[in-house]
Amino acid sequence: MKMKEEIGGTRRHSLKLWPENERPREKLLRQGAEVLSDSELLAILINTGSTGMTALDVARDLLLRHETLRRLATRPVSELCAFSGIGPARAATIFAAFELGRRYASAGDEERDSIRAPEDVARIYIPKLRDWPTERFIALLMNNSGRVLREHVVSEGLVNASLAHPREVFRAAVTEYASSIILLHNHPSGVREASKEDHVITKQLIEAGKMMGIPIQDHVIICGSNYISFVESGWM
Predict the structure, then answer these.
(1) Contact 172, 152 (CB under 8 A)
(2) Of 10, 42, 112, 152, which is most buried, counting CB atoms within 10 Å of its CB?
């Protein structure tokens, strides 16, 4: 039930006038975050409404526009800023929450942080890359213990248009004293298939790695919530 208050002759919704057991923040504190709907959780981030709308109204409209939280998380911040009832400050809060969620999903304990198999790469990087709107080509610079010394973004561009020049990959590897490299990129389309270009780039970098004495361990492609490993597929 929505209650209204009269302020200066303008009827405005206010969550403060709702019964306590229906207010999202109080509901979370009493019952836990898991009982709240997506709209209620968003409303807590939005905090206050706009003229004639509660924060929950704004949150519901936002989800109706974008259909799911995942789709909302992929939209540019400029688009969210322009949404009625949001603005820069609230947009920043929402995007910060999404980024924290991605980082939490990809974080592991110390034992699991070592990369020993393609599924370890997938576990860490699917949350980071599955919703990235453009193709990113990354060189994971590895030490002898199987830990990532650095994530080096080699290129980023339009969908299916990234290029990875050996010079850019191995210059960073030499600087970081990497013992090996895992190649990683995403398919924004989600298509679980390695392109001809993916094979050509991988072959070039494997040959360059042999000359540099810094071997390429694998090439992992993030395809939505799935992945392709060149090693698992028998391509290297």
Answers:
(1) yes
(2) 42
Structure confidence by residue, pLDDT tens digits, 168-218: 899 999 999 999 999 999 999 899 999 999 999 999 999 999 999 999 999
**Cβ neighbours of residue 218 closer than 8 Å, sequence gap 6 or more:** 118, 121, 182, 183, 229, 230, 231, 236
Alpha-carbon gap, residue 134 to 137, rounded angstroms: 10
DSSP annotation of 150: E
Please state, in angstroms and rounded to a whole number, the distance separating the CA atoms of residues 209 and 206: 5
For the chain, the 3-state helix, strand and coil shares in percent, each to the nearest 5, are 45, 20, 35
Tokens representing residue 39 in the block: 């709209």
Is the entire prediction scored with pTM above 0.85? no
Amino acid, res. 41: L
Q: CA–CA separation, 28 vs 21, rounded Å?
A: 10
The Cα 22–Cα 217 span in angstroms is 54
